[in-house]
From TrEMBL:
One Pfam entry name: PhaC_N
Main location: cytoplasm
Residue ranges constituting the Poly-beta-hydroxybutyrate polymerase N-terminal domain according to the UniProt record: 106-278
GN (gene name): phaC
SUPFAM superfamilies for this protein: alpha/beta-Hydrolases
KW Acyltransferase (keyword) present: yes
Keyword Transferase: yes
Gene3D superfamilies the UniProt entry points to: alpha/beta hydrolase (3.40.50.1820)
Record keywords: Acyltransferase, Cytoplasm, Transferase
Organism whose genome encodes this protein: Salipiger mangrovisoli
Record's subcellular location: Cytoplasm
Name of protein: Class I poly(R)-hydroxyalkanoic acid synthase
């Protein structure tokens, strides 16, 4: 086959014109989508401006009182920046088209070889890293500033530094430029299509899709453990899972997942399903699937979660299984609320819970850790104003808050891939779950933020409910707490401090490697993350870990099962879901989990 001269040019021109038409149409849709965005409370977009004023005042006071120190900082920064510029300029002037040798630490954002081999990109990278170091150092060396305010300033400085990374801009991102050249601009058109689709799907709010939402269907290729919904009320569905063994332990387990997210993080797929693992070890397992709140739940508080969730579930599990007690498990905020429930039961003289297990659970908030920026009055005031307007804390606000704790991984990198590279979000079950969030009832949110996080009332024995003062010391059942070494949501040392304050005489603390999710979803067949154990809980957190026994690449699941087995009674015939008084309503995963956040 032969082509006439100019055929390729004509084809390229036609493709270019078609892309221009697409961009014009997409631009119109983009503006329409942005116009639908509702104004958000200003307090949710950043700190009180006074924080920066205090930082500037502290900086100038430092300049006046110790000018040599500030001068040294400035000279150091300019010296590094100018030295790198002259080194690069000298190499180019001498005919070298290779940059100076890069001896700095590796940063996965700069994995493209061009960041090291190309003079232009290497120069940009090095100048960025030098500037970032100078900013962080300046914040760290401000002395005349309250520790909480300094922690907040450090957080917002990091956000600015991460936002200004050269990888976040098309002209200084070699991956995006290469992709645009290779696809003759198609990647940019596709990226704009992705951007418009995300804005349209979220009423003008920019929420980056992390996973392909069409790749998963609940009950088919995710959340597939076999079970039945045996009860439903306004707060929850109670799922009882089908046995996979002929006999089971007498004492059943009831697991309370966090209502900030959906429960199926514990049942993503059979290979890493904690739910399946528990059932396969010969236990009768019930799991609560919380309702996804709408505006009608504005007045629902923590007491409602305890009465209509925890206490109702515990009562139903005992009735269905014919037992006096249950073993209870709580994850994250559900673990915090399980501790409140145990204090309430203690003061009522109710011994329905035989043992408690806490996954990444905070109960002592005296140190707010990485959440310090979000737990000061200016931000919480903004949350409260948002709740007063809508009745709920919408899922995307909470999701955005968590994402900014790891902004490079959960915001900028996905945005680069989707909007600059034009890539389809991956079919990744964990990221799909991460994007399938839940709204939070207004009253509950404020009670949690004000009473627990800010005022730390439970740890101080002053959290009031039903005329009682709930106290962390009332948590006196045998317990095991699993925290995660790299957890950026529930820091392990803070989890440990709460366990130390609990009144139980039988306490076990386990420190898993990895983070808030992978530290818990850590199946034995992966041989990936190990854990630490140390029976001496009187030690400081640092000394506890230093003296702990480390199990390399061994999951904590078998350790927990062994601990649980000793508190679960004899073997009895396996139980099928429900009974005549509690008929099956529908198959797992149920209906509540399918409701999407507004």
């Amino acid at each position: 086959m032969t082509t006439t001269p100019g055929t390729d040019v004509t084809s390229d021109r036609a493709r270019l014109e078609a892309n221009i038409e697409k961009i014009e149409a997409l631009s119109q849709r983009l503006m329409e989508a942005i116009s639908r965005r509702k104004p958000i409370n200003p307090a949710l977009n950043g700190p009180d401006p006074l924080l920066y004023g205090k930082a500037a005042h502290a900086y100038w006071m430092e300049w006046m009182q110790n000018p040599a120190k500030v001068y040294e900082q400035q000279v150091s920064y300019w010296g590094k920046a100018l030295g790198h510029y002259l080194e690069a300029h000298s190499a180019l002037a001498g005919g070298q088209l290779t940059p100076p040798e890069d001896t700095g630490p590796r940063d996965k954002r700069f994995s493209n070889p061009l960041w090291d081999s190309h003079p232009y990109f290497n120069f940009i990278k090095q100048q960025y890293l030098i500037s970032a170091e100078a900013i962080h150092r300046s914040v760290d060396e401000i002395d005349d500033l309250d520790p909480k305010e300094k922690k907040r300033l450090r957080y917002f400085a990091r956000q600015i530094v991460d936002m200004m990374a050269p990888t976040n801009f098309f002209a200084t991102n070699p991956d995006a430029l290469q992709k645009a050249l290779e696809t003759e601009g198609e990647s940019l058109v596709k990226g704009m299509e992705n951007l418009v689709a995300d804005l349209e799907a979220n009423n003008g709010e920019l929420v980056v899709r992390l996973a392909d939402e069409n790749a998963f269907k609940l009950g088919e290729n995710i959340a597939t453990a076999e079970g039945e919904v045996v009860y439903r009320n306004r707060m929850m569905e109670l799922i009882q899972y089908k046995p996979t063994t002929e006999k089971v332990r007498e004492t059943p387990i009831v697991l309370f997942p966090p209502w900030i997210n959906k429960y199926y993080i514990l049942d993503l797929k059979p290979q890493n399903s904690l739910i399946k693992y528990i059932v396969d070890q010969g236990y009768t397992l019930f799991v609560v699937s919380w309702v996804n709140a709408d505006e009608s739940y504005a007045d629902v508080g923590l007491e409602d979660y305890i009465e209509d969730g925890y206490l109702t579930a515990i009562r139903l599990v005992r009735e269905i299984c014919g037992t006096e007690q249950v073993n209870a498990v709580g994850y994250c905020i559900a673990g915090t609320t399980l501790a409140l429930t145990l204090s309430l039961l203690k003061q009522r003289g109710d011994s329905s819970v035989k043992s408690a297990t806490f996954f990444t659970t905070l109960t002592d908030f005296s140190d707010q850790g990485e959440f310090t920026p979000f737990l000061q009055d200016d931000f919480v005031d903004g949350i409260e104003a948002e709740i007063n307007a809508s009745g709920i804390l919408k899922s995307f606000i909470m999701s955005r808050t968590f994402s900014f704790l790891r902004s490079t991984d959960l915001i900028y990198t996905p945005a680069i891939r989707s909007y600059m590279m034009g890539e389809t979000p991956p079919a990744f079950d964990l990221l799909y779950w991460n994007g399938d969030g839940a709204n939070l009832p207004g009253r509950m949110t404020i009670e949690y933020l004000r009473g627990l996080c800010q005022q730390n009332l439970f740890s101080r024995g002053e959290y009031e409910m039903q005329g009682l003062k709930l106290d962390i010391k009332d948590v006196d059942v045998p317990l095991m707490s699993i925290a995660a070494e790299g957890d950026h949501i529930a820091a392990w040392k803070d989890c440990y401090r709460g366990v130390q304050k609990m009144g139980s005489r039988s306490k076990t603390f386990v420190l898993s490697e990895s983070g808030h999710i992978a530290g818990i979803v850590n199946p034995p067949n992966k041989n990936k993350y190990g854990h630490y154990v140390n029976p001496d809980l009187k030690l400081s957190a640092e000394d506890w870990q230093a003296g702990a026994t480390y199990q390399d690449k061994l999951s904590w699941w078998p350790l927990w099962e062994e601990w649980l087995r000793k508190r679960s009674g004899k073997l009895v015939p396996a139980r099928t879901p429900g009974d005549s008084a509690h008929p099956v309503l529908c198959p797992a995963p149920g209906e509540y989990v399918r409701v999407k956040a507004a």
